[in-house]
Amino acid sequence: MSLTRRLLLAAPALIIPPTLAFAAPEEKEFEFLGVRDPQLGMQLAVAEHFGLFREEGINLTFRWQPSGGDVLTVMGSGFPIGVGSQFGQIALAAQNIPVKILTGLADISDTQGIVLGPHTKVATPKDLEGKRVAFTQGNNSPLMFVKLAQRFGFDHTKIQMINMNPSEGVIAASKGDVDILLAWQPFLHRLITMGGTLFATGGATYFTGSKVVLPEAEKLLYSHSVILANQSWIDSKPNTLAALLRALIKADTRFKTDRAGAMAGIQRVLRVEPEPLRVMTEANRYGVLIDQPLVNSYRFTNDWAVGIKRIANPQKPEDGITPVILDQVDRSHVTWRGGVA
């Protein structure tokens, strides 16, 4: 028996569990703004269900919000941490509120899309001209028609955009009161089950009769779910945030290696029925990452927000996305550092 092995057997207390080797979290119990939506909360739900936060020495109490927009409002009043979108950070930063993106959670561009109503026939993208589209104001999904028009040479201004909430849009399109639904999952799926036809999503087209996945540079829409944190926490509680990200990375891995078990946990925590849960999780591209697609979503959303005068001054991903915590946790999850090696 080697000397090393004899020492280990003689002094088992010297063997330090991997989690305990990390610096202790500055804040062991805290509230977190969550949304019961698998495109925003998959990893959070899996980590909560399987006790992965506790493994990292932290205990989260979720303060559930109806939507990412509500998270933006609460964080604007000073709440330090939550889940949201790149637009949430851009809007807050434009108001000089020091909130940063710690990591992306999922590329959610394929959860948004265009579905033709059961009575609508479109042979080519140009046939979209003159059609009535149900959409919900306040998001950048209409840019999908702009990008389709640029690519296929039609006049997107001839499309009639009619504002209504997604549930109303599903009913209106199913009855023929409008021709098309522009929305997100699970509303797209609901209309499809009523006879609608998927035309395009942010990352793919279907109007040729088969799915055509678009290259990253040619997507119709760019959007991510992210973790948002106030700069004060980044400065004063880096170990707490590192523990949070370690738990989320474990949850992401769990989802990808044990989908059935993870789905049960997501359903319990997020309270989403199995069929819409399946549809929404399949539409997302999950990953606890800071990468070029996240930056693309940031720039795309910034340009839209400036263009519609939602924000006065453009925001830069170099200022809004901080890789410092995720780099500390696992550098392999950071492939974009804003020009810093």
Write a concise keyword list for the protein shown above.
single chain; 341 residues; alpha+beta; D-Maltodextrin-Binding Protein, domain 2; 7-stranded mixed beta sheet; 15 helices
Compact description:
It is built from 15 helices and 13 strands. By secondary structure, it is an alpha+beta fold.
Shape: globular
What's the N-to-C terminus distance? Answer: 44 Å
Q: Which CATH C-level class of the largest domain is it?
A: Alpha Beta
Low-confidence stretches: 1-20
Helix content: 40-55%
User: What is the string of helix and strand elements?
Assistant: HEHHEHEHEEEHEHEHEEEEHHHHEHHH
As a percent range, the share of strand residues is 15-25%
Strand order of the largest sheet: 7-6-8-5-9-10-11
CATH architecture type of the largest domain: 3-Layer(aba) Sandwich
Mean of residue pLDDT values? 92
Task: Profile the largest sheet.
Answer: 7 strands, mixed
Q: Tally the helices.
A: 15
Overall domain count = 2
How would you classify the helix and strand content by structural class? alpha+beta
